[in-house]
Specification:
This protein has ten helices and 21 strands. By secondary structure, it is of the alpha/beta class. The protein has two domains: 67 residues, no CATH class; 266 residues, Aldolase class I (TIM Barrel), CATH 3.20.20.70. The protein binds iron/sulfur cluster (SF4). Iron/sulfur cluster binds next to loops.
Length: 381
């Protein structure tokens, strides 16, 4: 547990959390929609600071980030909770559990693990990182000092204050849209009032120099609307630029909508067609191993510059300075292709259960902290 920085005290004594666009206004003893940020005695606490639910080494392509340090390995970690409540969540066992528990780790330990496992970066993923932003910040600042990069996999539903904080350590982000960002779909199936803050956060991240790739999870029957996909692609071209990579992701039946079929591949291809028609240069189909739209094609000559299968890179046809080897056109690559692209298995299991204790925050601990804070706040006023 640690006092958050992303909040403010309101005149009526409540606190307003400023980590995500919900801006929950919480009375003493109340917790936010995400379940992990609590008002205790008039101050906001991140209750899962230093408590992680999962940790592993993954290829960066799994995030997916295809254009940022391709071929690298990233230490990936999560807490519990989320600022959304998606009925189709592909990670619901982590994100939709609102619990105050996890393996105890310090920022120093995480950075050490990343180095020990030969990762070039740290990724905050599996659940929404903006809800544990202060912990990500402390890990990220240290990681950057030690020469590692930091990336988020996020729903992008953030405030300007949150983007300001992440810009102090974040290098790249995968911003995950769902159901083509259709407002009705997001309201009904994710309990998101309005997607507008995502667009605002994207603009802010771009302004602050964060490398961006966009994904869109296409959920058949309920979140599969080509007209909205076209609008999304057009917005990206106009606001982030035609070089921004976009990935249309296949849904697999899960959680509360496990009665739906997987996304038809034809539908993903239609989305890709529409995005290209709108002018996006790097358009991918995700979660379909072996599909030709896993490859990066040179927008100038059409040849394959990075050949992939699943999360593996099979061939790189780029020069040292990120140009197409065939025609010399500049390809949008953040960082550089990492030599680890040749490693046959870039996944690694991290035995966190041997390295750390699994702890739960108890009701007594919460009450004790709450009363201490209350006394302090009263004493200082
Ligand atoms: S991060 Fe959590 S507490 Fe903060 S505004 Fe979002 S849902 Fe509410």
């Amino acid at each position: 547990m640690k006092e958050a920085t992303l909040y403010r005290v309101l005149p009526d004594g409540k606190v307003e959390c400023t980590a995500c666009a919900r801006r929950c206004k919480l009375s003493d003893g109340q917790y936010g929609f995400c379940g992990v940020r609590w008002n205790l005695g008039g101050r906001l606490y991140l209750m899962v600071y230093g408590k992680i639910s999962a940790i592993a080494v993954d290829p960066i392509e799994k995030k997916p980030l295809y254009h940022f340090n391709p071929g690298s390995m990233v230490l990936s970690l999560s807490t519990y909770g989320c600022s959304w409540a998606c009925q189709y969540c592909q990670n619901f066992d982590i994100s939709q559990r609102r619990v105050l528990e996890g393996f105890e780790v310090t920022p120093e330990k995480i950075v050490e693990l990343a180095e020990d496992y030969g990762a070039q970066g740290v990724t905050y993923t599996y659940n929404e990182p903006s809800i544990f932003m202060e912990f990500a910040h402390d890990v990220g600042v240290l990681a950057r000092k030690r020469g590692l990069f930091n990336t988020f996999v996020t729903n992008g539903y953030m405030t300007d204050e949150a983007v300001d904080l992440l810009s102090k350590f974040l290098d790249a982000a995968t911003v995950d849209f769902k159901g083509n960002a259709e407002p009705k779909f997001l309201r009904k199936f994710s309990l998101v009032p309005d997607p507008e803050p995502i667009f605002q956060a994207l603009l802010e991240m771009k302004r602050k120099g964060v490398f961006i790739e966009v994904t869109d999870l296409v959920v058949p029957e309920i979140g599969d609307n080509l007209e909205y996909a076209r609008r999304l692609a057009r917005w990206i071209v106009d606001n982030l630029g035609p070089d921004t990579p976009i990935h249309f992701l296949r849904f697999h039946p899960d959680y509360k909508v496990d009665y739906l079929p997987p996304t038809p591949i034809k539908s993903l291809e239609e989305h890709a067609r529409v995005a290209k028609e709108e002018g996006l240069k790097y358009v991918y189909v995700g979660n379909v191993p072996g599909h030709p739209l896993e490859n990066t094609y040179c927008p100038n000559c059409g040849r394959v510059v990075i050949k992939r299968r699943g999360f593996d890179i099979l061939e790189v046809n780029l020069t040292e300075d990120g140009r197409c080897k065939f025609c010399g056109a500049k390809i949008n690559i953040g960082g550089k292709v990492q030599p680890t692209w040749r490693v046959s298995d870039r996944f690694a299991y991290v035995p966190i259960e041997l390295l750390s204790r699994y702890v739960k925050v108890t009701r007594e601990q919460i009450e004790e902290l709450r009363s201490k804070v209350r006394v302090k706040v009263q004493g200082s006023s």
